[in-house]
């Protein structure tokens, strides 16, 4: 409320002003409607800051004790949903500080000593990104283990591998699931790298140039789990690279999930019928009783645009900002918070769908009945007999065209028929032309042979186990 001169006594910065803030300005500039997501990080940072102020003699023991007790009370209120949020206090930081004053009185007014909202926000946001990066790394590790389980259970099931949405070469289901695991492994590594890079505390940077008071930045950093402190306050309070890094990792993860969702949306159709997704992850039609719609996968695909939009939104905010802090940076949070929650939900649901769905072996065998997928094997076998690859490629192309005209399968050709195209084909060659043999023979690192898939699984498990 205004002070006796009509100013902003309720504002932490109100001493400078002679009239109250316009109500529409208050609503336009507030962030408490969304930055309350930072309450855990704000309390954590305030606890560490208070302990440091005690250490350097800027707080008395009793004052620090009361502040810590007040913060505990606020933490309880936040947890059980009884915290009295006030829009006029603008953001989560002012809301907590004002509530702390209501609970403990004068000591609360000392908590902001040697601290600006600029470095306070920077700290809270870093802690939030660390927390969410670790959460995502953990969820992705669980997802990868689900895929490892599916890979081992279906290691001998053969299915067509595709390029250009055309059947290309036979692979195993184990190899297929591990291909998606490789993508998720890279996503996990990106989130872990964000965590590793965010190891410097910005607290103590003040508004932009530190403070004249005798604080101990390294004490705060250590208590919060950082390995050190940022090297330049002007940069630290305006740095949002780590938010962009998180959103980039979220975009890449979303792209991977979206491509997979598209694949299984196709595979779950009657035309493909390769995968059966449990009813609990499907929806129906209000008009057509026969429908089983893959709405969850469609939404995962659709929400990718939302995550990409958040990344572009943040980049647009950052592209023209002069040093150091500018209020534009308030707009970073909604992009970050929504993207983080979107990818968390997408990963959680897709992990369950991937682990509980079943590939239809009979339908896959039907799809493999057209054995053109073995054409590459035939060309390579001719190379093994001394035929130049380009010549071998042309020979097999003519064989495939012949089989199409005659409506024959490659495996149905006799040795005599094969030799009419090239005398280099060995005796009883047609017998080896099976999808199972094609998979087993690709026994090289990164290949689909069962022993190679298992070897790669063990490597990934060692990485997930931290060995």
From TrEMBL:
It comes from the Bacteria. GO terms for molecular function: argininosuccinate lyase activity. Residues 15-309 form the Fumarate lyase N-terminal domain. Its main location: cytoplasm. It is found in: Cytoplasm. GO terms for cellular component: cytosol. It is an enzyme of class 4 (lyase). It catalyses: 2-(N(omega)-L-arginino)succinate = fumarate + L-arginine. One of its GO terms (biological process) is L-arginine biosynthetic process via ornithine. Keywords: Amino-acid biosynthesis, Arginine biosynthesis, Cytoplasm, Lyase. Residues 373-439 form the Argininosuccinate lyase C-terminal domain. InterPro entries: Arg_succ_lyase_C, Argininosuccinate_lyase, Fumarase/histidase_N, Fumarate_lyase_CS, Fumarate_lyase_fam, Fumarate_lyase_N, L-Aspartase-like. Gene3D superfamilies: Fumarase/aspartase (C-terminal domain), Fumarase/aspartase (Central domain), Fumarase/aspartase (N-terminal domain). Pfam families: ASL_C2 (PF14698), Lyase_1 (PF00206). Its EC number is 4.3.2.1. Pathway: Amino-acid biosynthesis; L-arginine biosynthesis; L-arginine from L-ornithine and carbamoyl phosphate: step 3/3. Belongs to the lyase 1 family. Argininosuccinate lyase subfamily. This is Argininosuccinate lyase. It comes from Leptospirillum ferriphilum. The gene is argH.
């Amino acid at each position: 409320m205004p002070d006796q001169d009509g100013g902003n006594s309720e504002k932490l910065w109100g001493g400078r002003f002679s009239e109250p803030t316009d109500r529409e300005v208050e609503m336009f500039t507030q962030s408490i409607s969304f930055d309350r997501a930072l309450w855990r990080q704000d309390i954590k940072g305030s606890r560490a800051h208070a302990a440091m102020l005690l250490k350097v003699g800027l707080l008395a023991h009793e004052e620090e004790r009361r502040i810590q007790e007040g913060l505990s009370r606020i933490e309880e209120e936040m947890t059980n949903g009884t915290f009295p949020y006030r829009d006029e206090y603008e953001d989560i930081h002012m809301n907590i500080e004002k509530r702390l004053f209501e609970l403990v009185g004068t000591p609360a007014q000392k908590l902001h000593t040697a601290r600006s909202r600029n470095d306070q926000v920077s700290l809270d946001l870093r802690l939030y990104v660390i927390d969410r990066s670790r959460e995502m790394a953990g969820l992705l590790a669980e997802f990868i283990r689900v895929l490892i389980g599916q890979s081992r259970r279906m290691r001998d099931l053969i299915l067509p591998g595709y390029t250009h949405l055309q059947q290309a070469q036979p692979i195993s289901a184990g190899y297929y699931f591990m291909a998606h695991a490789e993508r998720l492994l890279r996503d996990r590594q990106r989130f872990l790298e964000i965590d590793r890079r965010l190891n410097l505390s910005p607290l103590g940077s003040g508004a932009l140039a530190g403070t004249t008071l005798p604080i101990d930045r390294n004490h705060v950093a250590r208590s919060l789990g950082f390995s050190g402190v940022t090297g330049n306050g002007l940069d630290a309070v305006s740095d949002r690279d780590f938010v962009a890094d998180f959103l980039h990792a979220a975009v890449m993860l979303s792209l991977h999930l979206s491509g997979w969702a598209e694949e299984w949306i196709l595979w779950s159709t009657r035309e493909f019928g390769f995968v059966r997704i449990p009813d609990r992850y499907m929806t129906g039609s209000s008009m057509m009783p026969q429908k089983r719609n893959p709405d969850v996968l469609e939404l995962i695909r659709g929400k990718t645009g939302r995550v990409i939009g958040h990344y572009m939104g943040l980049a647009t905010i950052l592209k023209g900002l002069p040093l150091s802090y500018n209020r534009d940076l308030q707009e970073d949070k909604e992009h970050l918070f929504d993207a983080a929650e979107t990818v968390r939900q997408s990963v959680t649901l897709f992990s369950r769908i991937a682990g509980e769905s079943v590939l239809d072996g009979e339908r896959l065998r039907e799809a493999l009945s057209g054995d053109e997928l073995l054409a590459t094997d035939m060309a390579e076998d001719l190379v093994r007999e001394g035929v130049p690859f380009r010549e071998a490629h042309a020979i097999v192309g003519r064989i495939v065209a012949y089989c199409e005209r005659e409506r024959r399968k490659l495996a149905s050709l006799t040795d005599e028929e094969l030799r009419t195209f090239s005398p280099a084909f060995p005796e009883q060659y047609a017998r080896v032309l099976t999808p199972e043999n094609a998979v087993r023979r690709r026994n090289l690192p990164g290949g689909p042979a069962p022993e190679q898939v298992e070897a790669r699984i063990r490597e990934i498990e060692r990485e997930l186990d931290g060995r």
